[in-house]
């Protein structure tokens, strides 16, 4: 057992007062030593948090103790260190940016459990469709899966024509943790696809529960691990170093903050290029200091990390003043 955990989850369930819940949620994370990225939107929650097993257990209990999120499914991974350097709890319009105009609570693709997915992946009548971004499937994907040259889910409508001829096939969508597929599969149904499924819990859950068979490469994740092993049964490497073209499944963000592209770069080239993806980026004045990982902490420009605590302290102060007996 490793000393820390990383827990990944999402939950589509309406949240009326996102600002207040954001503050409450953030306070709980601070008080329980948790770091990570959490998105709160009118449609629900989406997050990855990291901490000790005890703190992660407390967090999962906290989330599930709210009736709105009692059914949330957590993907739990062990890790040697805390997988984040900061805590960000943000309010957004959607828990995954899509602009697809669909509501997974109304209609979505049929959930396929990892054990059932494993039985289907070699079926010639099944078509696997990767709903992740191009840089994600560049470093890892299921054997034979269809991928799109898209940078985010908002671009899906521009690529549906690529699978238009497969409308009568059994379509199985997949993504990292399942959240994108809730909307992507719903969108495919709206576009006339007849038989649409989604891998419930995504690549991560499939790896944890079924060993990740037939997932080639590594899975891109949105924390300082950048990529994780998924396949313990028949692993392979499918990506090559962006600079030297040697086999490589190590992803970095370019050290040039204005570029920040996600690409596979081997350790040797990473050191020689100081974390940059090109000579131009290496010479750029906006190049960040490369520490050998290729991971850089994102900055929040609209929510101070202590805002929730400040709001709570202000409310407690007001309450105490209101309760103070009048002087005689």
From TrEMBL:
Spans through the membrane: none
Entry keyword set: Oxidoreductase, tRNA processing
UniProt entry tagged with the keyword Transferase: no
EC nos: 1.14.-.-
Residue ranges annotated for the Rhodanese domain, each copy included: 122-215
DNA-binding listed as a keyword: no
CDD domains recorded: RHOD_YceA
Domain of life: Bacteria
Listed Pfam families: Rhodanese, Rhodanese_C, UPF0176_N
Gene3D superfamilies in UniProt: 3.30.70.100, Rhodanese-like domain
Signal peptide: none
Reactions catalysed: uridine(34) in tRNA + AH2 + O2 = 5-hydroxyuridine(34) in tRNA + A + H2O
InterPro entries: Rhodanese-like_dom, Rhodanese-like_dom_sf, Rhodanese_C, TrhO, TRHO_N
Functional description taken from the UniProt entry: Catalyzes oxygen-dependent 5-hydroxyuridine (ho5U) modification at position 34 in tRNAs.
Sequence similarity: Belongs to the TrhO family.
Name of the protein in question: tRNA uridine(34) hydroxylase
Natural source organism: Dyadobacter arcticus
